[in-house]
Design a protein that fits this description.
Strand content: 15-25%
Mean pLDDT: 96
Number of helices: 21
Number of strands: 22
Distance between the termini: 37 Å
Number of domains: 2
Shape: elongated
CATH topology of the largest domain: UDP-N-acetylmuramoyl-L-alanine:D-glutamate ligase
Radius of gyration: 25 Å
Length: about 525
């Protein structure tokens, strides 16, 4: 199967820490771009986005809250540009600029007709938050904390709030603090900051703007953000001459009594994702249930002997998904070891296929080694495999996958907000698609069916995981459609898969490098 044409190459957006973001700025400056030029690009392009998205709001007056660092300098540039377009702007400074670039930006803004300094913001209908940037850590204090409260109060009275780089009070590495701006739109500069993905309730829409960093710092190992364009380029095209065999055969091993639904959901997701054939290998008592629920799949009972594995799985399948509804018991472990020992082809291990190896990730790795393999734990499952608390997994969300991939000899898709996919070499991608509609039982089974289909059709475990995470998340976004996730069912998400797989052009236009919707 050949991939869709990628079209014009688009530079990947990186997900960075505050230190990595600063290093990229420094690398661009060292390569010949003046720091003042980066500030001008950031402010001017942010102002252009504000005017494009909120033209009528700007007519009603703009309040810019400017800090004393370079983030405040970006705010002064925004104030100058908006005023030069005829919009009345009042800047409320937190203090005098502390950097030469910010001081120069302030001087230019003060000299611009239409810019007023200090006083009360009045009834401005649009607020620009430029108080704290990526260099700030911890909870805002004293006067800045008071200004954050003022910004949020204006939002409460109907103003639209736009934050520059990060909402003030959102730590660029760790996410929200107790005192933080609640933005409608966050305009991030050059890279996606980790903290933004951990603070989606506060960021509103996130748009990453190109400010002219180029490839500066791209060798730092920061993970790539999974994008629409990347997914479109990776998903294999289904030929006009395809048949069910060329679309691949997937065996799903799971479905103990009372948990057949997990295997059913995975099978439906696989069929919605373009697999050619599905076989459900389930407990004998579950056979009538799965055959009634998924009539287009075949079914077989759990293999009790190695020769039964050959009949049910190895002599038929192209890829195996093991885990949905498997159960966590000694007999489940024995079944997992029997299947994974006999089947040496591509495999996705999910749910109970991970739980039965709790504290024994290396034993799972012995079984998975030597083939394309993907494991899809949520944080608690990852913690059980590694023998560490769930809180430690969440605290090291962006790094823990490399440790688990090495132990399990597999690519790792760590579920959550955001999802982090790590290959065996430690290379990472971050997927931020999705809504809280996915925080429901069965969501992981839906994801596993998509991932197994992509593994069957691409042969690349980490890529299959990243594709599946984005498709799964985007289907939830389409199903939710800006509404509250309450009332959105996984069946609605499953139905939305058909629209996602169309993969029509949905890439942002320059200078926007990437855009994420607001959390509903």
């Amino acid at each position: 199967m050949s991939a869709h044409p990628a079209g014009a190459a688009r530079a990947p957006v990186r997900v960075t820490t505050a230190r990595e973001a600063a290093a990229r700025d420094a690398a661009a400056i060292a390569a010949g771009t003046a720091s003042s030029t980066l500030m001008r690009h950031a402010g001017e392009r942010a102002a252009a986005e504000i005017l494009r998205r909120y033209p009528k709001r700007a007519h009603g007056g703009v309040a810019v809250f400017a800090g004393t660092g370079n983030n405040g300098g970006d705010g002064w540039v925004v104030a100058r540009v908006l005023a030069s377009h005829g919009h009345p702007v009042r800047v409320i400074p937190a203090g005098e600029p502390r950097t030469p670039d910010a001081a120069a930006a302030q001087a230019l803004a003060i000299a611009t007709r239409g810019v007023t300094i200090g006083g009360e913001p009045g009834d401005a209908r649009l607020v620009v938050d430029a108080l704290l940037g990526t260099g700030a850590a911890g909870t805002p204090r004293d006067g800045v904390a008071a200004l954050v409260g003022q910004v949020n109060a204006m939002r409460g009275h109907g103003a639209v709030v736009v934050s520059l780089d990060v909402p003030s009070g959102v730590d660029a590495d760790a996410g929200p603090t107790p005192i933080a701006v609640h933005a409608h739109l966050t305009l991030a500069f050059g890279t996606m900051k980790r903290g933004l993905l951990l603070a989606r309730d506060l960021t509103g829409v996130i748009a990453v703007l190109d400010i002219g960093l180029g490839a500066a710092g791209d060798d730092d190992g920061a993970p790539e953000l999974v994008s629409h364009a990347w997914v479109r380029a990776q998903v294999p095209r289904i030929s006009a001459h395809a048949h069910k065999g060329t679309r691949r055969k997937l065996a799903i091993v799971g479905g103990q009594p009372g948990m057949a639904g997990a295997a059913i959901v995975a099978a439906r997701a696989a069929m919605r994702s373009g697999i050619g054939m599905v076989r459900l290998v389930v407990a004998r008592e579950s056979l009538p249930v799965v055959q009634a629920a998924v009539p287009y799949a075949t079914a077989a009972a759990w293999p009790a002997r190695d020769e039964d594995v050959r009949d049910a799985v190895t002599d038929w399948a192209d890829t195996v998904l093991i885990g949905p509804g498997l159960g966590d018991s000694p007999s489940s472990l024995a079944l997992a070891e029997r299947v994974l020992g006999a089947w040496r082809g591509p495999v996705v291990a999910d749910a109970d296929a991970l739980n039965v190896f709790k504290g024994e990730a290396s034993n799972l790795g012995t079984l998975l080694a030597g083939r394309p393999a993907l494991i899809t734990p949520h944080p608690a499952e990852a913690g059980r495999l590694l023998g560490i608390p769930t809180e430690m997994v969440n605290a090291r969300r962006f790094e823990i996958g490399a440790e688990l991939a090495a132990a399990a000899q597999a690519a790792v898709l760590l579920k959550g907000v955001p999802t982090v996919i790590t290959d065996r070499a430690g290379v990472r991608r971050v997927c931020a698609a999705g809504t809280a509609a996915l925080a429901a039982a069965g969501s992981g089974d839906l994801l596993a069916g998509i991932a197994a289909t992509m593994l069957a059709q691409t042969g690349r475990a980490a890529a299959a995981g990243a594709i599946a995470a984005w498709v799964h998340g985007h289907a939830a976004e389409l199903a939710t459609d800006g509404r509250t996730p309450r009332g959105i069912t996984l069946e609605m998400v499953e139905r939305a898969l058909s629209a996602v797989w169309a993969l029509s052009d949905g890439d942002p236009l320059p200078p926007v490098l990437a855009e994420l919707p607001a959390a509903p």
